[in-house]
Amino acid sequence: MRRIRAEISDRILSGAWPPGHRIPFEHELTEQYGCSRMTVSRALGPLADSGLIERRRRAGTFVARPRTHSAVIDIPDIAAEVASRGEAYGYELLSRAIRPATRAELTLLDLDRTVEILSLRCLHRAAGRPYGLEERLINLEAVPEAERVDFGVLPPNSWLLAHVPWTEAEHRISAANASRATGAILAIDTVTACLIVERRTWRGADKITHVRLTYPGDAYDLVARFAHRPSTPAV
């Protein structure tokens, strides 16, 4: 049951299944995972409760469309974040690949044509403990110099902030249990709640990067301070 829930959640949060996408029918999932229909139903229940999916009578189950958009104004430097907590920062490059973007990755980058991308997976540490998993796509058509950077030494988050100006950013913030693979990297159980921050940035018309940051829920909090606008009703 946990495997079904984790894999469906991963496909939704990665953008592979966009809002409105129909999830396979329960009998199809039963055949795919070799389990009972009751097991499938129990796996989907928490996803519906959390707002990730929407069950429609007689029509099926669909990826839910976002109900709330919240603005987070800044793009933080993770190394500086960790240092501000008074902890030693550590970094490890887990994987690096240059290749054509997949269809799902083009969607994540807001692109309608195939481009070469730099795909990076990195682990950030605070005081020696796993702090966050960074899974990043960089559009090499927009940022060709990224191909020559040694990201084995320099975190991509820090390099991009220092060298690539951005004009627009979009954040998506959600929560989900860790998948088995993510749990192994972050040294947490698969039942552990994680904060997931997905962000893509633009420089004018150029699509620069998409990143998915996964933090153990007890290691990270998100704070935004803002002023009330007199013309807007207080809520």
What does this structure look like?
The strands form 2 sheets. The protein has a 6-stranded antiparallel β-sheet. The protein is globular. The chain starts with a helix and ends in a 19-residue tail after the last strand. It folds into 2 domains: 62 residues, Arc Repressor Mutant, subunit A (Orthogonal Bundle); 139 residues, Chorismate lyase, CATH 3.40.1410. The chain is built from 7 helices and 9 strands. Helix content is 26%, strand content 32%. It is an alpha+beta fold.
Tell me the domain tally. 2
Radius of gyration (CA) equals 19 Å
Spans of at least 5 consecutive residues whose pLDDT stays below 50 are 67-72, 230-235
The shape, in one word, is globular
| Termini Cα gap | 39 Å
Quickly name the level 1 CATH class of the largest domain: Alpha Beta
Class based on secondary structure composition and strand pairing = alpha+beta
For this structure, the CATH topology of the largest domain is Chorismate lyase
| Fraction of residues in H or I helices | 25-40%
Number of strand elements: 9
Question: If classified by CATH, what would the architecture of the largest domain be?
Answer: 3-Layer(aba) Sandwich
Largest sheet: 6 strands, antiparallel
CATH homologous superfamily designation of the largest domain: Chorismate lyase-like
Mean pLDDT: 85
The succession of helices and strands, N to C, reads HEHHEEHEHEEHEHEE
Please give the order of strands in the largest beta sheet: 4-5-6-9-8-7
